[in-house]
Amino acid sequence: MNSNKASRPFSSAHSLAELVIIVLAICAAIDLVAIAIEGYQVLSEALTDQAKPIIGTLQLVTRLAAFVVFLIWFYRAHRNLQALGIRRSRYSSPWTVLLFLVPVLNLYFAYDLVKELWRQSSPDLGFSDDFLKQQAFELKHYPSKTALVGSWWGFMIASVLAARFSLMIMISDALAVVSSILLILIVRSIDTRQEEKHRRLTLDAVTRKAIDLVVATEFSRAPQVRS
After folding, report:
1. In a domain, 1, yes or no
2. How far apart are CA 84 and CA 201, in angstroms?
3. How many domains does one find in the chain?
4. How far apart are CA 22 and CA 32, in angstroms?
5. Which domain holds residue 126?
6. Would 2 be classed as within a structural domain?
7. Would 9 be classed as within a structural domain?
8. Is residue 7 in a domain?
9. Long-range contacts from 15-20, C-beta under 8 angstroms, 24+ separation
10. Consecutive sets of 10 residues in the chain, 227 residues long: mean pLDDT of each?
C-alpha cells in the first residue's frame, strides 16, 4: 500500500474543501432540525410522525452526499502529499478511498487515514534548518499532533453505536452534529496546512534559485587563473 510513484504537481483542493464544509454544515443543520422535531414529539406526535420520514430521507441523502464529496476531497488532498515533499506514505491514494469503503474496518481506518493526512500535511515538515531559521519570525508553527482528529473519531463512533443499538435517535443526531462540526474544523485545517506548505515550498524554491544565481554571478566575475 506504499506509494512509490513519481511526484505529481500540486493541485489545490481548496474548492473541494469548501464544498465538503458546506455539505457537512447542511448535514449538521438537518440533524438539528431532526433533534427539534424529536423533542417536539411530546407536544404533537401527529406532526412529528408526518415530518420524521421527510427529515430521515434528507439526513440520508445529505450524509451520502457529504461522504462522496469528502472522499473526492480526501483523494485529491492525499495525492498532493507527493508534491508537498512526502515521498513515501503508508497508503497509496487509491487505497485510502477503498479503506473508507470497507464495512467495519473503515471505522478504524477513518481515524488512521485522517490522522496521517493531518500529520503529513504539516508545513513544518521537509524544510532545511536554514530555511526555518531564516523564516523563523514569519512562519507559524503547525503541530503534527492534534486531539481534534481523535475527538471527531470518538463522536462519530458514538453516533454510529447509538443508532446501531436503537438508542434514542435524538442522542445519535446530537453526536452526529458534533462530529460534523469537528470534521469541518479538520477539513479546513488540513486544507490550510497544505496551502501553506505549498506556499513555503514555492518560496523556498525561489530563494534557492536566487542564491544559485548570486553564486553563479559572483563566480563568473571572479578573475580566471590562466595556466
Report:
1. no
2. 8
3. 1
4. 15
5. 14-221
6. no
7. no
8. no
9. 16/69, 16/72, 16/73, 16/76, 16/77, 17/73, 17/77, 17/187, 17/188, 17/190, 17/191, 19/69, 19/73, 20/66, 20/69, 20/70, 20/73, 20/184, 20/187
10. 58 95 97 86 59 85 96 96 84 90 90 93 70 58 82 94 78 95 97 90 65 51 54
